[in-house]
Amino acid sequence: MSSHALLSASSASRWIACPPSALLNAKEADQSSEYAEQGTEAHLLCEYKLTKGLGMEAADPTAELKFFDQEMADCTDDYVRFILEQKAEIEKTCKDPLVLIEQRLDFSKFVPEGFGTGDCLIISDNQIQVIDFKYGSGVEVSAEKNPQMMCYALGALLLYDGIYDIESVKMTIFQPRKDSISSFEISKEDLLKWAEEVLSPAAKLAAKGKGDFKAGDHCRFCKIKNKCRKRAEYNLELARYDFEPGPELEDLEVEAILAKADGLISWINDIKEYALNSALQGKKWEDWKIVEGRSVRKFKSEEETAKIVQEAGYEPYANKLLGITEMTKLLGKAKFNELLKDQIVKPKGKPTLVSRDDKRKEINTAQADFGGEE
């Protein structure tokens, strides 16, 4: 078995929704990124600190971490603190909960060769907690019916349900750089029902490259999203929309465009990126060519430039207060809160149009117009 499962838990949301994408993605080479490397290093630090926090010996990897900084130190400290708080809370009703770190979880009973690694498991008398650390700061990830977390939960259930009398599983995603702790609890019966009725049928199709292609939010991390025909059809549906005659769009037509706008923009940008990268690798497009884009002037050597200006009697540097993110990195989260907590204000955000299913509260535009506040 390879170290990367064909039907991995991390990509479950995609291959459940679009089963044939699994085999196509498997044919594409893995591409690492600086963000992925940062995440890997943060996980190593979490593993070390949690092991130490539980009173066990472990080798400190900090000196070997390329991306280690104060933010990573604070985020991993927060994670360990959270785990130990959960353990202490469970100990109020369960004398000796079992805490497992980086536990391999096998859910191949429902997914061919399905396995993954749980960052932390806490097993008590009647419940399993599955806790996943995410270091990403881009997209906030919810634990609510999250397929990756549910696959991990199944693996944990298959391991320990015979030893403990498990009634439910609680899944938590700890994402410190988004200030997010998201939890979702499900009964053992409902989790197994989902595995039998949703997960297993989709996995059987995906393993054989069968089923229907489907475009949607799950396309975000698909390796073939730039050239997927189904995604193209999905986004080009707007071009075939039956617009009413007349010089101006009706309200319903505007809403139809809004519903597709973000996905359409994302798809167009992906197509442009794919075409450019193909051209850079030697592909000749019939009606398109590579040219040198616009550039911004810069100093050949900042140090030499500063020296010349200083010798001429001028000050080449401008003093500027660090932003909140950089200031937090400089001071560390704890010191930042100690010194500057009362200096932080959060202005009202710029009005943004979103769909009705967005969880944010609708603002009163009349109040906004006249500067009123609720």
Offer a quick outline of the entry:
It contains twelve helices and five strands. With 374 residues, the chain is an alpha+beta fold.
Describe what this molecule looks like in 3D.
This protein is α+β, with helices and mostly antiparallel strands and 374 residues long. The protein folds into three domains: 9-208, Lambda Exonuclease, Chain A; 226-280, no CATH class; 316-349, no CATH class. Helices cover 42% and strands 11% of the residues. The chain has helices at residues 12-17, 21-26, 34-53, 70-90, 147-160, 188-208, 229-236, 251-280, 302-311, 324-331, 333-340, 365-369, and strands spanning 98-106, 115-123, 127-133, 168-175, 180-187. Strands 1-2-3-4-5 form a five-stranded mixed sheet. Strand 2 and strand 3 (127-133) form a beta hairpin. Helix 3 packs across helix 4 and helix 10 packs across helix 11 (333-340). The longest helix has 30 residues, at 251-280. The chain is globular. Residues 370-374 have low confidence and may be disordered.
